[in-house]
Amino acid sequence: MNVRSLYAAVRVDDSAVVGEHCVLGYPKEDRIRGEQLKPGSVLVGEPVAIGARCVIGNHVVIHEGVRVSNDCVIDDRVRVGYNSSIGDRTRIAYGAYLCDRVSIGEDACVAGFVCDGTRIGDRSTVMGELVHEYSQPHKGWWEVDEEPPVIDVDSVVGYGARVVGAVRIGPRSYVAAGAVVTKDVPPEHVATGVNVHTPADRWTGRKLQDLLRHWMSARGR
């Protein structure tokens, strides 16, 4: 079977740049399986759209139904799963793995692993892992659709941090590098260790003071 016959249509703006050895419009697994079982029966997949002035690096895989807005950068060796959307001026950093149906706002920066259905707000930075609880491994891979994390606007998930399950990281909150989060982080808090949440106005660490002052001045944006 020639899988390329199942690729979705791709619309790339004339001003966008696409690097070497990229795959755009790769089909969903269920469409591949359908074609294997009954050749010629599978419908055309949802198109991919790459906006104006985007830069797509090398060895990038973008699945069907993905929408990349204007002025985005997708670094080398990134995977973007089907029906995901990426807002204006967002950067997806080297080697990031975005699962399916991920929604990322504008002016964000995302690296690491992002599980199915995750929502990441405007101006947020994610350098850690956003994962499902994976509490029902006895069921089939496609039988379970767990609730994903939500990262609100102006928030940070530091390098090596892990946000697990259907938790929300509130606006203007900071998850420190290496932290583990399994409970909601309220707005304007700093999360450290395992579910240790400190209000931003009580945080005494010097390194975050400039960022916290910036966030406080930008309230209501």
UniProtKB/TrEMBL annotation:
Quick one: a GO biological-process term for this protein? lysine biosynthetic process
Keyword terms: Amino-acid biosynthesis, Diaminopimelate biosynthesis, Lysine biosynthesis, Repeat, Transferase
Tell me which domain of life the UniProt entry assigns to the organism this sequence originates from: Bacteria
Q: Coiled-coil stretches, from where to where? A: none
What Gene Ontology molecular-function terms does this entry list?
transferase activity
Q: Which InterPro entries match?
A: Hexapep_transf_CS, Trans_hexapeptide_repeat, Trimer_LpxA-like_sf
Query: What SUPFAM superfamilies does the entry give?
Result: Trimeric LpxA-like enzymes
UniProt xrefs under PANTHER family: 2,3,4,5-TETRAHYDROPYRIDINE-2,6-DICARBOXYLATE N-ACETYLTRANSFERASE, ACETYLTRANSFERASE
Tell me the protein's name: Transferase family hexapeptide repeat protein
